[in-house]
């Protein structure tokens, strides 16, 4: 394929080049071509000079791919070389490739530091710390700091710490220190500026100026002057005897009139303006519709109504402009107080930093940030080394430059500077500002624009767009023309620079280089929640139709030709903004029997397979801890059934390890007894070697002993599970190599990573198969493309307004909210509000770019979808942007009238529903088809020796005792077919939550109920900090979506308030004796009955009583009817309570319905307990008779 004119301009190595490459513009090919242009032409006859090229990539994977592509390009040139000299030169380049510096910026810096360790202040044998090791040392440093604080003897310092913790929760202070330690470069910037403030007033002036700049950006001067002028005009139109309301409004008009003549408004002026705007509008910020709110017509001169209402409208407009990035009220006394509090925080930060550096020195080791900062300091402080590196690298190429930050650019700039100025030909950067979506990794989109300006100025060109070295690649080789036209039309509207938001980027139209004008489908599905429609079902049904029914085609490149072929499942991707809806997506795909692969999700440390090994490590450290041993026995590692654990508990011994180490007498069947003996032998073997071999080798031994790789690979998504386990072991191996040995240290660090919701991603899987739909996050899809892409959930808010512990911006500062029970009524203050507004600007701009990345992963067919409730479009959602886009083109998305939108060269289909289909049993049908295939494979004879056959034990055909719960019994009573599918066939146990929702017919109130129960449990344990409790609970229940968190937070706190205002609620919550989360198991004939009692309390009669919270939104009149639906549950609670306290003669059970504040109580007698026992036993016998195969 021939290079375009723009690509040829980018190959010019006589000047510095910046390339802005749109999606599908061929930037990767361009990097390879530029390398070859320099190595083959400029260095002709001197192949060793290829090592003078430095190539920086964003990931190790990208570095490997670039090296591989260059190697292929060299081989291609060798095939076509006719001149012997050229051939020899190419051979020389090939020989040098392994020595060429192609790496990430971190790897490059590591090499520099290893070359000059003494000059960088490092020992030559330093190690590179990974995230786990860094977090471990950092938390240890913070712990040391707080030990020092707690032991402080100096009275003045103790008073300062006491004052700090009066204003901020100590745990939040730890979070702030952790954030500061993780971003030392940015923190150094904040510290330097703070140290320049001479006193409190200087700091207050700084914050005031920040606030003034923010409000001036939001409010256009003309609009502001218009309001003040109009108010001044109306200030002399008040009539004598006007109402008090009119007089108050008039006072604000007079106040604004005094500001009209001022050339520049000051802080106090804006206080008056804000007060006036709020007085001229409703509490919601909307304009008034009549003069009634201004005191009525009798208060004003005739003919004033139109002008007054106009004033209200203009005021509402200004408040609306302020709404998205609201900097809050101007600075107040709280900001002056923060100046003094931050001095204390800074002192703590410096001490923590010292502890942290000392701990790293003892290893010795450097973290990821150290690699960059120490390299920067080396280049800044050692001119000889800098000049040596400048001479060593004649050309610097940087890929994915939109993801660079200020620290990385400073390093690159120093390598390209000579005699105080940028060298004129050295730098080549390529990227796409529209694809900058790594803000959470500190990428700064503003750097790209700054560098383009610097390159132009270095060449004597003042206007960056006029500099020939700033190249824009507009030709796209990815999209079919129809899709290309849609992307151009939509994103030219959506991506536009804005004066008040420097994080917004400009869209450059793309020119499609592919043909097939009539190919490719564009579809936007708008599904109403009231119609019972959902996006998961829409996607699954559409995928089924595309592949199995309509036989849609796509294209693939073969040489220089595009060949049309049938679409396969592997050509399709579902791209998600977050993992919140992942379970529902997977369930729908299974229901439609669509093969899929979930790719590289986030939340690596919160995966069940990681928990399993975490429990193993805990057991090895403390075998007598029952919690971790039981968790280990129940895990995938051993799969010990609960009834066997119950029998094990009957064995003599003080703990489970002693019980497992005993004779194992009793009613075990021989198979289960032998299994426990085998487990015991393995655990003893691992305990014996735990201190003798490295922990990583120990975990590999565990995998080998259990044949775990084979077991896990056979499970759904087994490839990802196994990759996660291998990645965990790699972390442990690096932990060992760093010199930080010790099982307890490792456990502590893994625990912290789990609790802190580390954003570590899962390992990348092979995506080349054509058999599975790929389900992944948008971030994981960056750099990939698929013929068909689905982008759902477009009606979700994009700006996360949920509580955040710490806000940090280098140009502004770092802050956290005041504690709710502190000296100030509000948690917020001006600096904090400014930080929040800046964060919202970043997030909103990045959200638009994330949508751009998602849409441009498609090369041919694009399907967008959103679910709408009551025609409500969420603020800051993609659907809001789409609605504004179509409104400007005369289309109202909510009127459901337009089915086809045509504009220019594209056609967008709008669909408002689909035909619901009953897919019950389809996943079972699919599974049986898979089992039949597997059966055929297994029946093929294999050449396996007898020794290997002994590794496999046949499962017993006779089922053991069955464990029943109240939910399981109720399921059978209500719907035997559902019971059969769920418990007899055992399909899709991971979908239990969705299944349970259907049983109780409570939508997501079951999840809310569980979260609310957990909240009250923790409250009862005297954990009174609502913020900390909510953060902990949302983590436990994997609620990461900002909109969902905000919704749940409001409901939970409202319910809490309801309970605290109720005598019933307080009696339950503040019971003198109470226990939470009790799991009880008891014999029921030959089987077992189990359940969890959320809370039991000792009532006024001295009896232990079960209390279950019910959060249904019902009236008092509905309580009795709904309580009947929980009859089986209440009987089950009573039965379990009788097992716990058999000495009682009565067993009270209460359901507390929170919303109507009603208690539904039943007190069961011993005789009634016997009847319940017989009733449950009879029902279980009926179930076992009807479904005798599986326990």
UniProtKB/TrEMBL annotation:
Residues 477-783 form the UvrD-like helicase C-terminal domain. The keyword Metal-binding does not apply. This is DNA 3'-5' helicase. Residues 1-480 form the UvrD-like helicase ATP-binding domain. GO terms for biological process: recombinational repair. It comes from Caldithrix abyssi DSM 13497. Its EC number is 5.6.2.4. ATP binds at residues 21-28. Keywords: ATP-binding, DNA damage, DNA repair, DNA-binding, Exonuclease, Helicase, Hydrolase, Isomerase, Nuclease, Nucleotide-binding. One of its GO terms (molecular function) is 3'-5' DNA helicase activity. Pfam families: PDDEXK_1 (PF12705), UvrD-helicase (PF00580), UvrD_C (PF13361). InterPro entries: DNA_helicase_UvrD-like_C, DNA_helicase_UvrD/REP, P-loop_NTPase, PDDEXK-like_dom_sf, PDDEXK_AddAB-type, Restrct_endonuc-II-like, UvrD-like_ATP-bd. It catalyses: Couples ATP hydrolysis with the unwinding of duplex DNA by translocating in the 3'-5' direction; ATP + H2O = ADP + phosphate + H(+).
